[in-house]
Structure formats: C-alpha cells, structure tokens
From TrEMBL:
It is a single-pass membrane protein. GO terms for cellular component: plasma membrane; type II protein secretion system complex. The chain crosses the membrane at residues 21-38. It holds the Pfam family T2SSG. Residues 122-141 are annotated as: Disordered. The lineage of its organism: Bacteria, Pseudomonadati, Verrucomicrobiota, Verrucomicrobiia, Verrucomicrobiales. Residues 131-141 have a biased composition (Acidic residues). It comes from Luteolibacter ambystomatis. Belongs to the GSP G family. This is Type II secretion system core protein G. The gene is gspG. It is found in: Cell inner membrane. GO terms for biological process: protein secretion by the type II secretion system. Keywords: Cell inner membrane, Cell membrane, Membrane, Methylation, Transmembrane, Transmembrane helix.
C-alpha cells in the first residue's frame, strides 16, 4: 500500500506534457522577440561606423588642405589622400587606402558640397548602394 501512495505522489510532482509545451512556447516567444529586437542593432552599428569613417576622412582632408592649400577637387577625390595629385604643390600621404563603407561601397566625395558649397561633402550610399536615394548618409546632413 505504501508503494502505491509513493508512486502517485511521484507522478504528481512531475510536469505534464501540456505544461512542458506551454513553457517551451513561452521560451520560443521570448527568443523570437529578442532576435527581432537585435535586427536594428546591426543597422545602428553600421551607421555608427559610417560616422567614425567620416570623421577620420574629414581629419585627413583637413590635413590635406593645410599642406596643399585647398581641398582635393571632386575628380581627385579621396585618391588625393593616398597618392600625390599633379595639382598639389605640397603634399603628405594621409591614408594607406581609402576605406569602404560598412556595406562595402566606396565613399563618395564632392567639392564643393551640395548644401554647403564652401565645404567638401562625404557621402555613403547606404544599404541600397545607390547614390541619390533616401538612405544616403552625408556629412552635410
């Protein structure tokens, strides 16, 4: 008689299949929400990387201006920071190579800029890789 009572109380202490399914469902919902929330983190990290790259390129362009007397032309672009352009009287190498944006596209360069003609403009084409679209990032925005 004692063994029957012990078996019944042991069975009552375990989880039923329904309880296990409910717990697994709750865990799946939490994981799904976390994965969805983390999607935006990657995009924000890439935008932060663009900001850091632009600040680095701005510093290199300022050094170029100090040495050469003006910013590189649109045609010379960032390559003027890597190799000496014919127009530069004084020049010092600022970069070993021009960085790519986080979406693996080349940064655009314009001098004069679109919004501020007295300044240069650095442009990332954004996730779509096409210049002139809504997702572009510019140091003049």
């Amino acid at each position: 008689m004692k063994t029957t009572r012990t078996l019944r109380s042991a069975a009552r202490r375990g989880f039923t299949l329904l309880e296990m399914v409910i717990v697994l469902g709750i865990i799946a919902m939490i994981l799904g929400g976390a994965i969805f929330a983390m999607k935006g983190i990657g995009t924000q990290a890439k935008i932060t990387q663009v900001d850091a790259d632009m600040k680095s390129l701005q510093s290199s362009l300022e050094m170029y201006k100090i040495n050469a007397g003006s910013y590189p032309s649109t045609g010379e672009g960032f390559q003027a920071l890597v190799t000496r352009p014919a127009s530069a009287k004084r020049w010092a190498k600022s970069l070993d190579q021009v960085p790519l944006d986080p979406w693996r596209n080349q940064y655009g360069y314009k001098f004069p800029g679109r919004k501020k003609p007295a300044e240069f403009e650095i442009i990332s084409k954004g996730p779509d890789g096409v210049e002139g679209t809504e997702d572009d990032i510019s140091n003049q925005d």
